[in-house]
Amino acid sequence: MTLAIGALVIAARLLVAQAPDSVVRPLSPADSIATQKAARRAQKEFEQRRFMLLPTVPGGGDRCDVRVGRWCYWQDGEDSAPPEPKSIDALRAKFLARLGDLAARNPADGWIAGQRVRYLVEAKRTDDALAAAKECRAAASWCASLAALALSRGGDVGAADSAVTAALEAMSPEQRCSTLDIEPLLDGVFRERYHAASCAGRDSLRARWLWLARASYATPGNEIRVELFARDMLARLTSESSSPYDPVTGKDLREVVLRYGWATAWGKTLPGPGLTLGDRPRAVGFDGDRTFALAPTDGELEDPTTIGDAARVRDDPTARARFPVRGAKTLGGLTERVALFRRGDSTLAIAAFDASS
């Protein structure tokens, strides 16, 4: 297992340092600007047309489990996301083909490379997203981050976690500090400690929080760390472009994405009574995999033995942050029996767990 993990780290590092397969003649500044403008126009047109094709869904009404700036987040049960119309899938495929052509013209354009990976991930074409990241010739840290994003949605947590490590190592210390900033996910005394700490001091605090937030220690890699990195990337990619929510930027966008994730499906609300000229339906985003409240409390961070696994706590809709546990429908503690037997100067511990429920 150790060799396999090490091999994944080496492979991820090679992805950062790899040389281009072929020499691409750099574009003139004017051509580079024109290429990105064409990509931005194509993206804006796609999002405008996508919005028109979105299925109608009920809004949240007055319900709002959590308010983050302009954003309202609420839980309304599983399988509430509407299926995506085939017309949107076809429209996205056409847009991605256009992005691919523009990326081939200027592989050093980080914006084009980033949006290409973003929409390939959205289309669940994770292998193509990873291939697109490998074709990226922008800053090494950015291309490595795109590869980590692609791997984060591929199901192999160990490989994705190794790619996150490689991406972070390619960054400057300042970039690393801001990329895995967990402050928006914290509250209480631990948030105050984290806020007051230097970047170096935050490393150990962050490592403790990420370790205790894990839902499983039986698999390689930290799925919470991987998810947090992916959320940071998606917040960056969507804040500098359009989305079903329109072009939206600001700290509240990044915070809501870091805390609850980026939507994997969308609908639009029905026009309500009393709309004035210029008003239009609003987009509603839906989570993908079911999420759980996994963030440790102040008490648990001080003493991990106090961690509780009550299902009602893990399903708290007002939790400060929620994370997916792939394939899990519910999350709770196991009924256990522990027996201790003295053996001279040592003790034999035997534990049994009931996982039938």
What report would you give on this structure?
With 357 residues, this protein is mainly α. The chain has one domain. Helices cover 50% and strands 11% of the residues. The chain contains 14 helices and nine strands. The chain has a three-stranded mixed β-sheet with strand order 1-4-5, with no helix packed on it. The chain has a two-stranded antiparallel sheet with strand order 2-3. Strand 2 and strand 3 (71-73) form a beta hairpin. Helix 3 runs antiparallel to helix 4, helix 4 (110-122) packs antiparallel against helix 5 (126-135) and helix 7 packs across helix 11. The radius of gyration is 22 Å and the shape is globular. The two termini are 30 Å apart. Residues 1-22 have low confidence and may be disordered.
In short:
By secondary structure, the chain is mainly alpha-helical.
Q: What's the arrangement of secondary structure elements?
A:
Elements: H1 2-17, H2 29-53, E1 56-57, E2 66-68, E3 71-73, H3 86-105, H4 110-122, H5 126-135, H6 140-152, H7 157-169, H8 173-179, H9 188-196, H10 199-213, H11 223-239, H12 251-260, E4 265-269, E5 283-286, E6 291-292, H13 298-302, H14 311-314, E7 323-324, E8 335-343, E9 346-354
Parallel strand pairs: 1-4
Antiparallel strand pairs: 2-3, 4-5, 6-7, 8-9
Helix pairs in contact: 1-6, 1-7, 2-3, 3-4, 4-5, 4-6, 5-6, 6-7, 6-11, 7-11, 11-12
